[in-house]
Amino acid sequence: MRRGTGTGPRGTAVTTTAPGGFAGAVACERTKLWSVRAPYLCLAAGLAATCVFTFYYASIARINEHPVQPVGNAAASSVILVQFAIVVLATVAVTSEYATGSVRASLLWVPRRHRVQAAKALVAAVVAFVAGVSFAVVGTAVAWAAFGGRASFEAGPALRQILAIGVYQALVAVLTTGVAFAARHPAGALSILATLLWALPSVLLGLGGPALAKLNGLLPHGAGDHFMRIGGDAAYAPATAVLIVTVWAGAAHLTGLYVLRRRDA
Fold it and tell me: Membrane-crossing residues (predicted)?
């Protein structure tokens, strides 16, 4: 804890304390994140995209008379698009400081660089988890109305899918934070993440074939889709799927930390 002194109403000395260490770094990053408009815009865009995507997904299933499926699959499918609201939020939280030069002040306040990165990753992950769960709840409700009887609902599986979406979005936030620290520029970070989370999986699935499908299952979103979705022909258990995404997030975090420690701010 850091201590400071001030003067009370009658001239008496008053000692105040402020959180230090990792707790102080987290408090600082939380304040910085919510002091600008970008996070609010990203979350609003994510909510809007969830509503549109899940309504479209469920409407197509109803119109084409697809087999009955768990209603939560609509929200899980929307993540391929909605995750980029979290990606942009976490990217801006890092790269905006490099753009303005305020990262130098952050590293003066918290000299231990791993604390700065860990604090940003933790704050982004918590926000992403809460946002992911909220998006999933809203998306499930919208899809249930649009499915028109072409979906099933069970409380246990639906809750599992909602929490799985939140966990996946939190891991995407950690992954994004690591990439952003490594790239240090929004265009570079977003290019890497768009390729990894959307373009490459789309190409692999578009080309088809069991080998490419298996390779897609080892990518972050491919594994995350196995983790979030119920049914289908997943090649491995949900626990293995979330482990794959965790490994990707951990590798990105360590890469970002390496760059942060080796290069000047």
Answer: 40-60, 80-100, 121-147, 159-183, 190-215, 235-260
